[in-house]
Amino acid sequence: MKSRRSLPLLLLLLFTFCIGIFAIDDVSAAQRKRKGSGNASLTNMEKSTMIYIREEEKLARDVYIKMYEVWGATIFSNISVSEQRHMDAVLNLLIKYGVPDPALSNPVGVFTNADLQQLYTDLVSQGTESLLDAFYVGRAIEIMDIDDLEGAMEETNKADLDNVYGNLLNGSYNHLDAFNTHIANLTQ
C-alpha cells in the first residue's frame, strides 16, 4: 500500500527534475549564444589582450616574489602562488588558441612588454623602501589588474575568455582586500 502512495510523489519529483534540467540547459544555451562558443577564432584585440594579461599576471607574481625576498611577509608568498595559478590559466587559453606565450622562457623580473618591464623596475624600487610601501605596491598592482580584467571582459564575446578573466578578477579583488587589511594594520 505504501508503494502505491509514493508512486505519484516519485513521478512528481521525476517530472520536476526533468523540467529543471531543461530549464538549466536553456539558460546554458542562452549564455553560450550571448558569449560565443569559445571555439571561434580570436580577434586581434582579444589576442593582444590575452598576451598582455599573461604578462601582467607575471608582473604581479614577480613583484610579490621580490617583496617576499625583501620583507619575508607571508602575504607576498601566498599571493605570488595565486598569481602563478592566474598565469597558468591564461597560458591554457594561449595554448588553446595557438597564441605565442610572451612569458615562456623569461625569468623572474624579465618581460617582453617594455612598459611592463619598466613598471616592474619602478614597483620593486618603491616596494623596497618600506614594508608599508610594499603593501601599497601590492594594492596598486591589484587595482591595475582589476581595471584591465574588467576591460578584457567587456571586449570579448568568448565564454571561455570571459570565464577565466572573471575568475582572475575575483582573485584580484581578494588580493586587494588582503593588501588593504595589511595597510590598515600598519597605519592604525
In short:
This protein has 188 residues and is mostly helical.
Chart the SSEs and their pairings.
Elements: H1 2-35, H2 44-71, H3 74-97, H4 114-127, H5 131-155, H6 159-187
Short key terms for the protein model shown above:
mainly alpha, 2 domains, 82% helix
Can you tell me about this structure?
The chain is mainly alpha-helical and 188 residues long. The chain has two domains: 1-35; 40-187, Ferritin, core subunit, four-helix bundle (Ferritin, Up-down Bundle), CATH 1.20.1260. The protein has helices at residues 2-35, 44-71, 74-97, 114-127, 131-155, 159-187. The radius of gyration is 22 Å and the shape is globular.
What's the helix count? 6
Q: Please report the first level of CATH classification, the CATH class of the largest domain.
A: Mainly Alpha
Radius of gyration: 22 Å
SSE pattern? HHHHHH
Overall structural class, as computed from helix and strand content, comes to mainly alpha
CATH topology of the largest domain: Ferritin
Strand content: under 5%
The largest sheet, given as strand count, sense and whether it forms a barrel, is:
none
Number of domains: 2
Q: Please mark out the parts with pLDDT under 50 across 5 or more consecutive residues, or reply none.
A: 6-39
